């Protein structure tokens, strides 16, 4: 998530931090409050029904693959060691991919999608240790698929879909398009779910509830927190999918995956939870843990990791 909300978020943060000028004159300046940080707890490796997790998936909006590689993002990936790595906002045509990632022996099966029309825009990737049964690109609608936003991999027991959902943009210039996307993407996922359960991961470009961002009151007209976008993800969840993080941590506040680069937002943990693992209901008994790796640097998003028994 880049455009559309940074200025609003920074402004809201500034209002909360500084107060009015008149208040400053009459009151002694307050010491800034210490930020409330989220501590990612130890990984849980056993599901509710007693199975051990046997699939580990990591998703990360890297905000430009080439820059992220230069910031040593792959070192973190090797340490995390997921079975599947999904990346969003790669901003990189396949011909321009860094050799550091295309030659990774840990992931012999690599899949890339990029924007057809705009170089350095959008893009997703999926790197797998085990070869999927089948891989497809897009959701079957040209108006969406030309931007390189979705890769779907079929595995024996589930589908894995990684997505970079369109941003509604500064001034909400793409909100109408986003609403169309939400309807079409939900239909695509529901059709897949009828064949085999699925895991959806990626940057969904929406904070679902007020608990999912630091400053909800100041952002109700900002891209990523409009009523229309929130309704879009609500309808997706109502159609048979579950937000894995909220399933396990329903009351956990201050757990974010995106922070604008402005105003030291990450240091102050003024963020948004925009990155998700959504699961088909039939996969829920195998859910072990849904992690927010907020210590990992290299992007304005942090990675998230799913442990599941399938």
From TrEMBL:
InterPro entries: AP_endonuc_1 (IPR004808), AP_endonuclease_F1_BS (IPR020847), AP_endonuclease_F1_CS (IPR020848), Endo/exonu/phosph_ase_sf (IPR036691), Endo/exonuclease/phosphatase (IPR005135). Residues 1-52 are annotated as: Disordered. Keywords: Cytoplasm, DNA damage, DNA repair, DNA-binding, Endonuclease, Hydrolase, Magnesium, Manganese, Metal-binding, Mitochondrion, Nuclease, Nucleus. The keyword Membrane does not apply. Probably binds two magnesium or manganese ions per subunit. GO terms for cellular component: mitochondrion; nucleus. Signal peptide: none annotated. Residues 41-51 have a biased composition (Basic and acidic residues). It catalyses: Exonucleolytic cleavage in the 3'- to 5'-direction to yield nucleoside 5'-phosphates. Mg(2+) binds at residues 61, 89, 203, 205, 300-301. Pfam families: Exo_endo_phos. The record marks 275 as: Important for catalytic activity. Its cofactor is Mn(2+); Mg(2+). The record marks 301 as: Interaction with DNA substrate. The active site is at 164, 203 (proton donor/acceptor), 301 (proton acceptor). Belongs to the DNA repair enzymes AP/ExoA family. This is exodeoxyribonuclease III. It comes from Gasterosteus aculeatus aculeatus.
